[in-house]
DNA sequence: CAGTGGTCTAGACCACTTA
DNA sequence: AAGTGGTCTAGACCACTGT
């Protein structure tokens, strides 16, 4: 997405942005910690405050850090209110948000299918952790989700405590040091099968909204491939352009 | 969306941003024209170049203007490549874009339904122009679109030349001085009916992706309400987060 | 070459948070 | 009151576009 086309000239603030990012990625500044003040950082890097600000601005725009006037700049966590809905677009028809409740149906290791391998940019047959869950919105079982992650990147995820947190990305961040920073979603319409009939309470053949998401880390690595099938009788997917 | 909560303090660059915007809205700087240089504007408003830049930056971020290094800053038009795909999210499954070709099926004036009136923020029964068309992607009739606009805002739209341009928003801008700046889309899954069977060549009861879009002008006024039903056999809706 | 936007500087002051 | 990010200034220089 942010491909620089053979730069030949690289603005200072971009170099500093990457320097800061590498300190976040490497774990020097874990999520939730306040990074040094702008004046301190500008001195450390030997640049003006204005230039350093542009670097931090860029990170703030990508939700990697969050600024708080008077307090400081914190590395973003997936429990901060703001970040919660960057990846969750299902709302009531009037546009109001509703918090999902999750129930895990299945959790096991297996080999990646071709589709999953391509999405995760790994070899077909690589061992992945597969989790299936339903998500309840306003007491309606609205989504049936299947997601896979590379087992090497998330060791022993299948043995995590029985009650997985509602926001899985928080778990990825806290237990596996993997922060989801962006994602691509492909949406299409499909028909409900037996599984959806059973878990979502819809009739076989009824239309569902399918969302295929590739979630990516701070440096664009594919972390998770997720397929959600949603009953859009009571909720819809909202996108603002 | 950009609601300021009783500011009590209003940064200079925001005031200037609105001053610039009002000159665009009022037609002093129509779409496609280059606005004065940053130094000229900074002198006119009696602020520093840096402050004026922040104002223009804000407009550029909202795609109201487009900067061109070495040339100047131009008021955005709907034919500029960049702006074309802000509102068109249908792609092939590999993510590559494909240009739509449109064919108008119907065009007439009638009274707004309740749903349309609410979307357009007008009274139920107000006269609207209703256009129905199909859009072909890669030689596949992929979308069936129904859209309505307030007839008062778009006088005699129903009498426009038989061959409406492919990008309607370009027409809105050139003939009616209405620039679409942002939009909200609600996505859900529906089943195909007779109309979709006839025009999209899908079977009755097969699943379709329905997109309900409210397109808004530079100041947030609802300009158009559009419902698209898409056959997602060969294309999908792509969203990057 | 002149003119544009893009980067960078050094410093002042303001608004907000915390102690 | 001290420290943070947010605004604003005035000016220098760089990269890109036209003529």
UniProtKB/TrEMBL annotation, chains A, B:
One Pfam family named in its UniProt record: UTRA
Keywords, in A-Z order: DNA-binding, Transcription, Transcription regulation
Coiled coil location: none
A biological-process GO annotation: negative regulation of DNA-templated transcription
Domain HTH gntR-type: 10-78
Domain of life: Bacteria
PANTHER family: MANNOSYL-D-GLYCERATE TRANSPORT/METABOLISM SYSTEM REPRESSOR MNGR-RELATED (PTHR44846), MANNOSYL-D-GLYCERATE TRANSPORT_METABOLISM SYSTEM REPRESSOR MNGR-RELATED (PTHR44846:SF1)
The protein's name in its UniProt record: GntR family transcriptional regulator
Source taxonomy: Bacteria, Pseudomonadati, Pseudomonadota, Gammaproteobacteria, Oceanospirillales
């Amino acid at each position: 997405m942010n491909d620089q086309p053979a730069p030949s000239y690289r603005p200072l603030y971009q170099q500093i942005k990457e320097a800061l990012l590498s300190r976040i990625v490497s774990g020097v500044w874990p999520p939730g910690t306040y990074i040094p003040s702008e004046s301190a950082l500008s001195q450390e890097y030997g640049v003006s405050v204005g230039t350093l600000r542009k670097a931090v601005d860029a990170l703030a725009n990508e939700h990697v850090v969050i600024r708080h006037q008077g307090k400081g700049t914190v590395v973003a966590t997936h429990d901060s209110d703001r970040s919660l809905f960057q990846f969750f677009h299902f709302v009531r028809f009037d546009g109001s948000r509703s918090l999902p409740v999750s129930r895990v149906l299945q959790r096991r290791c297996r080999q990646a299918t071709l589709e999953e391998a391509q999405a995760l940019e790994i070899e077909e047959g690589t061992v992945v952790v597969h989790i299936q869950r339903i998500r309840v919105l306003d007491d309606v079982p609205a989504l049936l989700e299947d997601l896979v992650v590379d087992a090497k990147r998330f060791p022993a995820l299948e043995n995590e405590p029985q009650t997985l947190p509602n926001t899985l990305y928080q778990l990825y961040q806290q237990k596996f040091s993997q922060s989801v920073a962006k994602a691509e979603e492909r949406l299409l319409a499909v028909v409900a099968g037996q599984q959806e009939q059973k878990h979502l309470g819809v009739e076989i053949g009824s239309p569902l909204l399918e969302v295929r998401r590739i979630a990516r880390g701070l440096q664009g690595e594919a972390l998770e491939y997720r397929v959600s099938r949603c009953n859009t009788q009571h909720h819809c997917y909202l996108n603002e352009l």
